[in-house]
Amino acid sequence: MKLDSKIPSGPLAEKWTRHKFNVKLVNPANKRKYEIIVVGTGLAGASAAASLAELGYNVKAFCFQDSPRRAHSIAAQGGINAAKNYQNDGDSVFRLFYDTIKGGDYRSREGNVYRLAEVSVNIIDQCVAQGVPFAREYGGLLANRSFGGAQVSRTFYARGQTGQQLLLGAYSALSRQVANGKVKLYPRTEMMDVVVVDGKARGIITRNLVTGAVESHSAHAVLLCTGGYGNVFFLSTNAMGSNVTAAWRAHKKGAFFSNPCYTQIHPTCIPVSGDHQSKLTLMSESLRNDGRVWVPKTKAIAEKLRKREIAPKGIKEEDRDYYLETKYPSFGNLVPRDVASRNAKYVCDEGRGVNETGEAVFLDFRDAILRDGEDAVRGKYGNLFDMYEKITGENPYKTPMMIYPAVHYTMGGLWVDYNLMTTVPGLYALGEANFSDHGANRLGASALMQGLADGYFVAPYTVGDYLAGLPYDKIPEDHPEFRKAEETVKSRIQQLLGIKGSKTVDHFHKKLGKIMWNHCGMARNAAGLTKAKEMIRTLKEEFWSDVKVLGTGEELNLSLEKAHRVADFLELGELMIDDALHRNESCGGHFRDEYQTPEGEALRDDENFAYVAAWEYLGEGKEEALHKEELVFENVKLTQRSYK
Amino acid sequence: MSWVSKTLNSTLGKKLLMALTGLFLILFLVVHLAGNLQLLLPDEGKSFNIYAETMASNPLIRAVSIFNFGFIALHAIYSAILTRHNKKSRPVGYAMTKGSANSTWSSRNMGILGSLILVFILIHLRGFWYEFKFGEIPYVTYEGVTYKNGYAVVSAAFENILYVIVYVVSMAVLAFHLSHGFSSAFQTLGINHKKYTPFIQKVGVGFAILVPALFALIPIIMFLQSS
Amino acid sequence: MNLTLKVWRQKNPSDKGGFKTYTISGISSDMSFLEMLDVLNEDLSDKGEDPIHFDHDCREGICGMCSLYINGQPHGPQQTTTCQLHMRSFSDGDTITIEPWRASAFPILKDLVVDRSSFDRIIQAGGYISVNTGGVPDANEIPIPKVISDESFDAATCIGCGACVAACKNASAMLFVSAKISQLALLPQGKVEKRERAEKMVAQMDAEGFGACTNTGACAAECPKEIKLSNIARMNREYFSASLSTENV
Ligand SMILES: Cc1cc2nc3c(=O)[nH]c(=O)nc-3n(C[C@H](O)[C@H](O)[C@H](O)COP(=O)(O)OP(=O)(O)OC[C@H]3O[C@@H](n4cnc5c(N)ncnc54)[C@H](O)[C@@H]3O)c2cc1C
Ligand code: HEM
Ligand code: SF4
Ligand code: FES
Fold first, then answer.
1. Distance CA C216, CA B187 (A)
2. Fewer beta carbons within 10 Å, N or C terminal of chain C?
């Protein structure tokens, strides 16, 4: 099968406009004859469901939380990019496009990324109209900040709660459509499978998480907006419920999975404090604007620190290694996320980590406090410092913060074409669930932008284009394909409940997480990956023979829910390993020890790897097939990133 | 009139009635207190008796006092309706609650406080209002005009220590009711302002202490004078 | 540390339910409250006992999914969410009573999990600005004074957790409802429909069976996002002026 990205022809800046003109339209009176399923109510899902319903389609929206407002997008802190150039500092659609392509280490499509930059301006207008209270200047106009090392101030923000405010905006639009009767909500409902009839996605199978009922929902198109799969690492900054299940089941029904190994590891998270740890908390990247990252120069001092024999304050200036500042004099502490993370790992691997577990570095505000005063620092970061103190019980005004990288975002996802359609006709993927716009590394404040771009401004056009060619009649929910899919889901539930093994679901999840973190985390190598693949296979077998899922299928059953998700993570983990192993280069979030420059920086191989890897599922126990979508760059020149 | 009943039947509307009637009762307390304090004047009740007579014969005041009874009734009836509604909103309670961590005792016990006040009002009405109006009451004559000697009834009543205690305790109850009620009524009416609300709250506390204290002073002093 | 936990267990909405007592040891003060429950649940699972069900998702204090009435207070002794409560707030040997949110508008689904969809229905009744996607003015078209925008933001930070309802002796949802009404009524974009919005949202709040407000202030004192009581006053104002206005009859 040849992958067709369906990028419209013509000059970069005109592609989207032309495409919008060329898509087929559905007559307004006929829109109500179509039913669309939207799985997920995060930024991507809520915005898509609301916008499609406004157009007149009938929408069913699903999420596993008790309310659409709780989708994981709520947790995003920093901000959202848009090429408004309100600050007159030289920003433009092209610059945002260029920064995103470059930031993604040249592993994304020009056409998609340009469109993203283009519609970014509309997103801000839309959100303000909905009542999203973005930060403002005293003159009453919108404020911006520079984020993630960008050279221009294009990030719009709402204190440290941008995701929350954007999601509540989209949720309110969605709620309005629920009141209008155009959207029917299904909270506490988990999608268990996609139903494909005659090669087209025609519905889904769900499990009602309260009653356990397995149900069929038929529709004309299915949109998966189910977020990222960072929880394959067990510990991540994702919400506890974030999962790959929806995307994975779609993958097994024919949707290709792209670039699964591209994972973003965020450098400023609160370190793991012990085995009980259930999730990791992100500390805003903005902290690196004033905080200085360091570890002791020698292992001996670090050891004393770990044993709490000395306090960080007592370490003399000449014994401190401000490793980012020395190594990258021009960017210093503001190097991109992947670089900052990797270097933290290096110093900790050398035994210079500063907390009990040896996996933490200091982020020190001593000098900022001396320079600007404690009040100024409090003014900028007060809420973050409070949050840090709440979690760790340590006062960062007095003693340096400790941070360590954590899994944060997954650039990989379901392969989609320019229309956001997967390789299964009628099945779309939006937001973090698709692979589309961030290449091998996502820039700060770009995920919110992409989720909303997909949902508000792309899908409403492209889904209509597909529906326009489809008859109105729905496949009845007792169609054999639905029946069959329901049976498969039910028997899997019975299978999980029937194992009655000796180890809890979390036991397996934690083990999988460790394997992934150690071998497919910040730095990977062929030997480790090969070993990890074996380990995962063994773990998977063990899971299916020894997992213990209590209770029944006909009730609220958290361990059963988790078991489904972990089972899918186990399969995804293996694919991530395959992907990481086959990509013999380093790019963005994928760093292979074997491929680095003499200075230890990522070494891309554009000649052989400037493509999107799209994996096709071929059946239980079979190796997946690799398809390549070559990336064509007509508007940017590929260069090596340098932050020296 | 459907919008009126719609508004008044909402939880907000019911509270609006509570607040308006409550505020009216607060005003009434002030007027009532002004009158009653005359009991303490060293004139053997002359001012008080004349005042009481003037009030009783003024048609406007009589109308107001009918309203007043109506408002007490409304306030009490709505407090019952609201309390019932609120109970229904949490049919099963908590095994352990720590209200003191988040609210004042009086705010959590407005119903009990109010009911005690109601009982007091009934005792008060039976003891004085009813006696003044329908009871056997002595008369006095000032400058040739005959007046009911309410003062005599009052001072006789306050010779009884039990009666005095009931009054003083009830005033304490009123104080607690008002310590929350005064500022609460403004909040209910939608008056909450960065600059003025702290002031209203202070006035509320002052009012809640001063007015019941002065009311309570009357029986105490009269009791002391009698013995 | 070692703890005794008194936890509400209830199999399903119709089950009567009751408290069960558990003892747990080896709890580190660095754990979050939910991580402590995770440990207990692993223990229970090992013993073949059904784990305790409770709601949670982000564990960062922002999604509003976690609940729990801990020792007589929603979200426990600190003014934060349960997921951000740490075991540092307890001491060795403590007995901790854990109950679900209690309100007729929040029926219990299982153990400590309650159904808060009534909140969603209140938002659906009018907690939005009626604009469609596209065709909106430029974001900088309407300047909004920073103080107004900030005040609106303060109200907008509500996470819909329901602690206000749980804390209130009347199980009243005023703080939640007023936060949304305030956020939108303060902004020029939202002013257009503020009257209708207030009427509809209050009507829905009443229909869901939430209690009335006695202005005890317990909600604001327990709200993890420090939503202020002044929002309730604003809601009252908006509601009464809507009733009196001739615009919406
Ligand atoms: C801590 C943190 C901070 C971040 N900060 C920023 C930032 O500052 N700027 C930025 O641009 N990005 C940020 N990001 C990234 C960004 O928040 C996410 O990538 C983005 O919000 C994802 O949105 P989404 O709509 O694709 O998915 P989500 O918001 O994750 O929504 C997924 C939805 O799918 C539903 N779902 C999932 N599986 C199923 C299933 N099987 N059945 C039914 N429903 C299902 C869920 O219920 C949910 O509604 C941050 C991420 C994290 C973790
Ligand atoms: C002189 C007598 C009284 C005065 C001055 C008075 C005043 C007030 C005021 C100002 C309020 C606050 C209203 C608000 O929160 O908006 C209030 C509340 C209340 N009053 Fe009274 N009151 C009096 C008598 C009574 C009586 C007789 C009862 C009951 C039988 C009563 C029961 C209540 C209750 C239950 C509340 C709280 C209602 C709620 O918010 O749920 N009060 N009162
Ligand atoms: S007002 Fe506060 S307590 Fe109530 S739902 Fe919102 S955040 Fe929770
Ligand atoms: S779990 Fe999200 S707020 Fe507590």
1. 11
2. C
| A133 contacts C187? CB cut-off 8 A | yes
Interval A272-283: pLDDT, tens: 988 889 999 999
Examine residue A173 and state whether it is found in any structural domain, yes or no.
no
CB-CB contact of A222 with A203 (8 Å)? yes
Test C88 with A393 for CB contact under 8 angstroms. Answer: yes
DSSP E strands: which ranges in A65-120?
80-81
- The dihedral region occupied by C162, where left means phi > 0, alpha psi between -120 and 50, and beta the remainder, is left
Q: Give me the active site residues of A, please.
A: 337
Assess contact for C215 and C175: CB atoms under 8 A.
Answer: no
pLDDT digits (tens, 9 = 90+) for A197-253: 999 999 999 999 999 999 999 999 999 999 999 999 999 999 999 999 999 999 999
Which of the ligands is closest to the CA of residue B113?
A: 2
Partners of chain A (3+ Cβ pairs below 8 A) = C
Partner-chain contact B89 C73, CB within 8 Å: no
CATH number at residue A525: 1.20.58.100
Please give the residue of chain B at the shortest CA–CA distance from C218. B102
Q: Select B2-90+103-226's CATH number: 1.20.1300.10, 3.40.190.150, 3.40.50.2000, 1.10.4160.10.
A: 1.20.1300.10
Index of the ligand 1 atom closest to the CA of residue A431: 26
CATH topology for C3-110? Ubiquitin-like (UB roll) (3.10.20)
Q: Is the pTM value of this prediction over 0.80? A: yes
CATH topology of domain C117-248: Fumarate Reductase Iron-sulfur Protein; Chain B, domain 2 (1.10.1060)
Task: Decide whether any atom of ligand 1 lies within 6 Å of the A446 Cβ.
Answer: yes
Whether the CB-CB separation of A246 and A224 falls below 8 Å is answered with: yes
Domain boundaries, chain B: 2-90+103-226
Query: pLDDT tens for residues B156-201?
Result: 999 999 999 999 999 999 999 999 999 999 999 999 998 899 999 9
Q: Measured between alpha carbons, how far is residue A400 from residues A292, A361, B22, C9 in Å?
A: 9, 9, 56, 43
Domain that holds residue A558: 495-607
* Domain limits, CATH 3.10.20.30, in chain C: 3-110
Read off the amino acid at residue B185: A
Counting from 1 in the atom list of ligand 2, the atom nearest the Cα of B29 is 1
Q: Is residue A138 part of a domain?
A: no
Q: How many Cβ pairs closer than 8 A exist between chain A and C?
A: 215
